[in-house]
Structure formats: structure tokens, C-alpha cells
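Bumping my old thread because nobody answered last time. Still need a sequence for this structure:
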């Protein structure tokens, strides 16, 4: 499992250590400005952010490197739907689906488990990832005081290095658990899944199907308003009765949104013209 563990760890953030943080450290140490390097780092930062917020991407890549892209897309899409209404607000750190999507995909592919059985581990893994994030945030207190001392001494280069190392530490909180989870945990997970009775496995599969609906419901609670509900039901009717696929539904949604904004803007201008 060491080869698979290395591949999964690479997807979890190993690529960022080489392609993003290493060039950043070299740039800071050399103190040489380069437009090409600036654009490269900007591109890698965008890719890194996309991985973090769209967990279907690292899950799909995990499936790809393990030889089963389809499973990666299925598991990643399901986890994405489960956590679609969950995001960081200030210092409130929710369970993190990033690592959970990667390890769940690896579990399904390497053990032959069903998607439902793997999804039963998504929330526990997300909670563990949340605890690792909180632990590293606590460690950041030390870095902050270190940075304050550097600022007092006028050590700008030291602050740049510290910021880069801090970002590297955030990445390692995903890379190390991903590597150890596959290298040391897959065999244990396989033995655990083998002793799960059939009725419980079926129940986990059904529960896995319900969890994405829960994620969508959480998102609706956030965006729900008198203006949004008619469009929600319009989209539902279009998807069910017109058999629109996701791409056609997205295009229809954009067109309706543009028309709505134009009509609303025209109505506001008419009211201003009439002095209402």
C-alpha cells in the first residue's frame, strides 16, 4: 500500500508542496522579483483554492491515480453535496470534507467497499481533520509571536519565510494523515468492513443517499428568501418534467437570472423616474 499511499498523499497536497510552496520559498530566499514566477504562484494558488472548496476535484484525482476515476467522481460529488452548506465563518471551523473525500475514495477503491459504507466514514474523518486544523491554529499562536518579534526587528525576509512555512504546515495537516491513512489504515478498514453484516451495510448505503439531500437542505436554509423560492421550484419542475441535464439546467438558470436582474433594474429605474 506504500505506492498507493504516496499517490494519495500527492493528491492531498504533496503537489502543492513541490509546485507552490517550494518555488515560493526559493523566491523569498533569493529576494529576486519575477513576473513569470508571480503568475505561476498566482495560478498554483488558484488551483489550490479550487481543490479546497470543490472537494469533488481531489476525490476525482484520487480515483484517477488509483485507476478508478468514475468512483472518484461519484464519491467526491456525494461528499460535495453533503457539505455544500458548510463553510468556515471567522474562527468557526466546521468538519473538513477535503481529507474525508480523498480517504473515502481511496477506501472504496482499495477495499472494494460500497459507496454507502465508505460514506459512513466521511463525517468521522471530517471531524478528525477539523481537530487537526484547530490544533495547527493553536500552534499558529507561537508563529504570531515569532512574527511580532521579527516585525519589531525589521526582519521582512524572516516574516516572508514564516508565512511560507505556515502555509506549508497547513498543507502537511492533509498530506501526512492521507499518507498514513492509506499506508496503515486500509487493511484495518478492510477487516472492519468484512465483519459488517449485510443489513447494516444496506442501511449505511441508504444513509449515504440521504446525506447529500441534507447538505442541499442546509444550503437552502442559507439562501432561502421570497425571491429565491419561485426559482427553486421552477428549476425542480424543469429538471423533473422536462428531463433537463445539469448543463442545460445551469444554462437555463443563468438566462433566468439575467432576465430577472434586468427586469428588477428596469423596475427600479421606472420608480426613480416617477419619484416613487
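Sorry it took so long. Here it is:
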Amino acid at each position: 500500500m506504500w505506492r498507493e499511499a504516496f499517490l494519495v498523499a500527492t493528491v492531498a497536497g504533496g503537489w502543492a508542496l513541490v509546485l507552490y510552496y517550494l518555488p515560493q520559498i526559493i523566491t523569498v530566499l533569493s529576494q529576486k522579483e519575477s513576473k513569470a514566477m508571480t503568475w505561476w504562484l498566482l495560478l498554483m494558488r488558484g488551483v489550490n483554492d479550487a481543490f479546497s472548496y470543490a472537494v469533488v476535484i481531489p476525490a476525482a484525482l484520487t480515483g484517477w491515480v488509483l485507476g478508478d476515476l468514475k468512483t472518484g467522481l461519484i464519491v467526491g460529488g456525494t461528499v460535495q453535496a453533503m457539505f455544500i452548506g458548510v463553510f468556515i465563518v471567522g474562527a468557526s471551523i466546521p468538519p473538513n470534507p477535503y481529507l474525508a473525500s480523498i480517504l473515502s475514495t481511496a477506501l472504496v477503491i482499495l477495499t472494494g467497499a460500497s459507496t454507502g459504507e465508505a460514506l459512513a466514514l466521511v463525517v468521522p474523518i471530517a471531524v478528525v481533520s477539523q481537530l487537526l486544523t484547530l490544533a495547527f491554529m493553536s500552534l499558529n499562536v507561537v508563529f504570531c509571536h515569532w512574527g511580532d518579534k521579527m516585525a519589531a526587528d525589521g526582519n521582512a525576509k524572516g516574516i516572508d519565510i514564516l508565512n511560507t512555512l505556515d502555509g506549508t504546515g497547513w498543507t502537511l495537516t492533509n498530506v501526512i494523515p492521507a499518507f498514513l491513512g492509506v499506508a496503515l489504515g486500509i487493511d484495518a478498514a478492510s477487516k472492519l468492513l468484512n465483519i459488517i453484516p449485510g443489513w447494516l451495510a444496506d442501511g449505511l448505503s441508504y444513509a449515504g443517499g440521504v446525506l447529500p439531500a441534507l447538505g442541499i437542505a442546509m444550503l437552502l436554509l442559507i439562501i432561502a428568501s421570497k425571491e429565491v423560492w419561485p426559482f427553486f421550484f421552477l428549476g425542480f419542475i424543469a429538471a423533473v418534467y422536462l428531463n433537463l441535464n445539469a448543463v442545460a439546467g445551469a444554462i437555463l438558470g443563468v438566462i433566468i437570472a439575467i432576465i430577472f436582474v434586468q427586469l428588477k433594474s428596469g423596475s427600479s429605474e421606472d420608480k426613480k423616474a416617477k419619484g416613487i
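The chain has a mean pLDDT of 79. Let me know if any region looks off to you.
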